[in-house]
Amino acid sequence: MLVKSRKLLPFLLLLVIIISVVMVSSLSAAGTNVALNMTASADSAETSKGNVAANGNDGSTSTRWCAADGNTGHWWKVDLGSSYALSGSEVMWEFSGRQYQYRVEVSTDNSSWITVVDKTNNTSTAQTQTDSFTATARYVRITVTGLPSSTWASFYEFRVFDAAGPTPTTPSTPSSTYQAENAAVGGGSTIDTNHTGFNGSGFVNFPSTGGYVEYRNVDGGAGGSKTLRFRSALGATSSRTGQLTVNGASQNITFNPTGSWDVWGTQDVLVTLNAGTSNTVRLQSTGQDLANQDEMTVVGSTTTDPTPTVTLIPTPTEPPTGGMTMMGADVSTLQRSQELGQKYYNANGVEQEPLVILKNLGVNYIRLRVWVNPISGYNNKEKVLQYAQQVKANGLKLLIDFHYSDTWADPGKQYKPAAWLSHNITQLQTDVYDHTYDVCSALKAQGTTPDSVQIGNEINMGMLWDDGKIINNNFTNLGLLLKQGYNAVKACNSGTQVIIHTATVESNSTARWFYDGIRNQGVNWDITGLSYYCFWHGSMSNMTSVVNDLRTRYGKPVVIAETAYPFTTADADNEPNVISSSSPCSGYQSTWTGQANNFAAVQAAAKSGGAIGVFYWEPAWVAIDGNGWDPADINGTGDGWDNMAIFDWSGNLNPNIRWSP
Length: 661
Description:
- The chain has 10 helices and 27 strands.
- It is α/β, with parallel strands linked by helices.
């Protein structure tokens, strides 16, 4: 552990002074340090030694901010007081000669964040590191993602540069059309004039590789649902895809060829804008050059859901042909079963580790639910951390399913955890962020970083009722909660995929209602998750249709996060079976063969709609005393799912069942 109180030799003090003089000289060229003495905060500070957040932007290189422990993931944030057109940032770490990894993000509302500097793989050992970017924002946050050994997250100064002064927040004449020559560009994008047909004096020209950006600040009027209309020219023979981010909410946008770099067309995309001028529109190339960009027009408020003429993601006319990549199983009860002595046997009757059995059947993803503080301890943070190590040790990917409750959360109930019962929507946003970040960071710290995370479980009508419940079609509070969950996951690990999960697959209109509702609140997510049980959610052909529609409508992959089918009508314990019919879905009997055939058909139907995966829910939950369904009475209740597992009551495997890519 690094000792934080130490004596500095005189020559080190002199060295610090020399460095400070050199840095002041370099800063004047970079622009004004608008972070100086502005309001600073941090998730952690070594207050006992005075290393508080305010030291990080007080202008002194003899005071520092330091986190209260040696873990990664700590962040420091500055509120600039108003929006600025920013040109970059600079951090002076506590030590030179050591590799710090970090990420810098900006925000206009302290809720939705955009990454502008990603040095999570940084190899530089310079004490002072300067990063250029172009963004308009009020808040700037640096997160320490990697540390040298025996080093804590700590820096002397974090500076934010602006050359133009505060961005006006109340223009005298609101505008609806924004010329390209007034955009800020970065990463090599230029304002060019070497083609004809554009309006004004120039257009944004993207280089031939990905990562280049343009920013425009737009007036959202009264706010709400708006259409951004891009005037663009694309002389390539194939479409070009980029990422459009509006106030931190991202979606993919595809520009189609116009026949020539001198022929201009228009494409529309639906977004949500804030009232007034505090709207940052960011367009970034993701793989190759984009179409040339000229005017961008904000079209008036929409009263109906328009059909955009732009595809929100490269939308194939046929389902993807690459096969499914998330072949999963939710085994949240398996840890308890094994601790109670349950044995599992493969198709040859040989006892084997159940994760190995599942992997040999084609499983590559394991889903684990996490409750906040269940009375039994299953499945709290500590239990999930323990079992995640087994998951990763067996070469399997990990999906964490946050219920944000002490017990089951599903379409009919979304109970607050006991510790959050008195909290209002403001405090609940902090609760969601802190709980999500805490679990994710603890998993990351032990080397089991989640590959995917669900923000809520089957949240058809919201979560954390009643504060986060959808009432009278009002998605406002749910949107606030989901944003905090998303932000926490990305702050923990930007590569972790965020899933928003509902059980709305039986009705395309209901599914659209939900996902339109959260999209209109500016919620971002990476994968759309759906539960599908044929005895509750209807025909497989309808499921295929809904999967395909949601995939194309929102431009995001779709996964069937839950499915299952019975292999018998018999009951192994005194807990009544949830499904007891001999043929709960037409054409599939409650037998080994019927279960396997149903699962194969569900996978085929999901794949036909373009889904990227299917998860079987609790395939290993066999009936054993002490592993009951109620986390408040785990020893006194039984298992109503024992006839839905793929193992019988002795732990023998259904020999016919398989996961298929």
